[in-house]
Design the sequence.
């Protein structure tokens, strides 16, 4: 259950970051509301996951989900460019997250 909570926290983190981009500096109502609600949900699910996970592992994985998700969606939704070095770095983050999951107690 702790990993599900962490996954949900990561998904909500990605949603609030994308919502913030769509909100145009909180000047558009619906994306602004989505950003605020999912920001709170992300924090709540992270807090629930951290009840059962070490802080370092949980926080690193939560941030990593956000980095990976927002990078990919920035590329897909906003035509943001990713250099080869950025792609390699994202792959290394994914490998790190897998390693943390495999070796976390």
Sequence:
């Amino acid at each position: 259950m702790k990993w599900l909570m962490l996954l949900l926290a990561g998904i909500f983190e990605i949603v609030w970051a994308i919502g913030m981009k769509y909100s145009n500096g909180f000047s558009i109502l619906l994306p602004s509301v989505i950003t605020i609600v999912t920001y709170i949900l992300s924090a709540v699910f992270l807090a629930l996951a951290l009840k059962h996970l070490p802080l370092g592992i949980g926080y690193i994985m939560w941030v990593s989900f956000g980095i990976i998700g927002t990078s990919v969606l920035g590329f897909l939704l906003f035509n943001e460019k990713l250099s080869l070095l950025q792609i390699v770095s994202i792959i290394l983050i994914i490998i790190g997250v897998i390693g943390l999951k495999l070796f976390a107690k």
Remarks:
- The mean pLDDT is 94.
